Model the fold of this input.
Amino acid sequence: MKVLELKNVNKIYNSSEVKVNAVNEVSLAFEEAEFAAIVGPSGSGKTTLLNLIGGLDTPTSGEIIIAGTDLSQLKPSQLIDFRLKNIGFVFQSYNLIPVLTARENVEFIMTLQQWPEKERNERTEELLKAVGLGDRMNSRPSKLSGGQQQRVAVARALASRPKFVLADEPTANLDSKSAATLLEIMEKLNREQKITFIFSTHDPRVVKMARRVITLEDGRVISDELR
Amino acid sequence: MTATIAWKNIWRNHKRSLVVITAVTLGIISGVLLIGILEGWSKQRLQDAIYNEVSHIQIHQADFMNNEEINLTVRQPDNLIRVIDSLPGVTGWVKRTRIVSMISTPWAASGANLYGINPEAEKLVSHINQKIVPRGGRYLDAGSPSDMLISDKTAEILKLKQFIIADSTLDKLRMAKVPESLLAKLEPLKEKRFRSPVDFRNALRKAFSKKELDRYGAILMDQALDYRLRNKVQVTFSDREGNPVQGIFRVCGIYKTTNTSFDQSTLFVNADALAALYGASETLTHEIAILLNDTKDAGATAEKLIPVSTGNSVMTWKELAPDAAMMSDYMLVYYFIFIGIIMLALAFGIINTMLMAILERTKELGMLMAIGMNHRKVFSMIMLETLYLTLAGAVTGMVTGWMLAALLGRTGIHFTSWGEGFEAIGFAAKVYPVVTPAFLLITTLMVIVTAVIASIWPARKALKLNPVEALRTE
Done:
């Protein structure tokens, strides 16, 4: 089942002197339970593409359809709600809410969606245990290592049962051991819970683990390899 | 959850939040105290004006206030008194003789309004009998026709107020625990007579250091003070035919109100004794003063008296003591000006703090919007942070300010250094702040409204952030 489809998507930045085609005629489709990596050199358009897929940026032309909804048809306020319900985000620098504990960070997404308290608690515990932080639920981000923080971010991204999780260079700030642990966890969640992960990455470890590798260059898809 | 995050957010930067909370607290405390002092002054001035000086209503012959001549007596006073007696809400009334006179002692002379009063009846409308200063003799006695009650200020003008360091003074100072070393410095001043406070103060300045004077000056002045009671005061005025009349009275007592200008222009003698001087079979009535149960009724009662006061003028306290009336009427204006200034400063402080907080948290706000926190929730979060920050300071400020005002309302604040200046314009040197619950409530509401308004700018700035750009910031 398709969870995400891009049709002839372009993103053009018009600066005063030059016109930059950051994403150029990209057409892609992602199925449920994919574990895909978008790779390419710096400036190839990975992050822009990820922002477009995540509804954080709007394409100059083309369609982005998630679960049957064309993002270009949504108003900005609808887009925020759409992101909340359908897309999980994992950022390069964790980006947890520093004043909240690990538990509260994960719970936050469900609170925004007004889940009942009991369900919130159960889901939070289930997710934090799944990422191996069952014993650090009440720690604030400042008391967690980078790897642990990123695992909380993964748990948060999964909290509202999104259609897919977008992870922008999730291992870039981690040491190799933490990166390996994080990847194993994500791979396991993908395998067991059929969660779709789409990464943008430079990290060969991520690429190695990915079952689909999309390579971008100058905003264009130059290869789309299934393994 | 938004409320929890907002609360936790304000404690991220303890120092900054505490600085803002302290600033708000101090602002509110000073506002509460300032308004409390003004309100206290206004109330005291009103009370003093009515109970010491002008009562609620006065009736004079129509031209008397412009031209205080002895022949301009109240028309048909007895008819008026009958009407006054029939009016509801009247506490009491008195008839007074009021003559502009020259007063003199062998050392000085001055001009003043000489009031001929019935000492007992006067107590019904005036508290002047309760204003006799310590060691200042007594109130007028109806059985003692030569009695004259003068003010502390008049005593000073007529050189009847003197300062003497006698052995008994030193004993009293010793009892008051003034150090012997200081008393020794008083020896050269012993038995010298200083006829003005200025002379005595100058002599003390030469003998003592500033520090010693700051500590003991007041008690030295107080203990050395001596009024020349029973001293003769000569009064001169024109009788009904325009011939000069002279009489001698003896100072029986010294009074002091909070209004120096009233004090220096007002002396009291027995009305009968005064009548004997101007040679009338009965006392002349230049003034009828009426005291009411309630100040608010003054206007309405005066309205009732006007139709029956042909040839007379009926004036309320508002016309007789316009300064007190103005202060009372303009309290609300003063309040809004002072609180307005405080709120303006508060608003800028809040805006600055919150803009800084948003600038520091740009990336985090971008993340919150990216993961799905909608505009309404981001706006509420910033607004709540502002409200919490302000309310924490406001509540602390209100409670502390109210407690301080309540405490000072009991003990009073003595503006020693400026006391004379204040009293010269009719305001007590010792003020008892008054803070009403209504004032606290209105101020709290104003603080909340200010906080809400001040939070709009930072909150809107947060909403304008583009999540993608915000996430890129470091």
Observations:
- Chain A has a mean pLDDT of 90.
